[in-house]
Specification:
By secondary structure, this protein is mainly alpha-helical. It has a domain of 41 residues. It is built from three helices and two strands, in the order H-H-H-E-E. Strands 1-2 form a two-stranded antiparallel sheet. The radius of gyration is 35 Å and the shape is elongated. The N and C termini lie far apart (78 Å). 0% of the residues are buried. The mean pLDDT is 76.
Length: 90
């Protein structure tokens, strides 16, 4: 770290040991994560705005009763027997 950044200066031994660290500290951060964050925030704000100001076109309600097409119940169950290797009815 440099003295300008408010940190303490590194010794010559530390500078020789960590040139990669210094290059990472001195380089600017990547812009992609910040752009993705801003895009997500803008989409969320638009979603909230749409949910607040949007209107439903049609609200339908009805009273009634569900009537089945047939009154026949089909209860067929079969199970494969692991011992016999064939299908059998329950």
């Amino acid at each position: 770290m440099s003295a300008e950044g408010g940190g303490r200066a590194l010794s010559a031994e530390a500078l020789a040991f960590a040139p990669g660290l210094l290059s990472i500290q001195e380089s600017p951060p990547a812009p992609l994560p910040r752009v993705v964050l801003y895009a997500i925030l803008i989409l969320f704000a638009l979603l909230v705005l749409w949910a607040t100001l949007g209107r439903l076109d049609v609200i339908a309600s009805a009273e009634g009763q569900l009537v089945p097409r047939t009154y026949l119940k089909s209860c067929v169950a079969s199970m494969r027997s692991s011992r016999e290797g064939r299908w059998r009815e329950l």
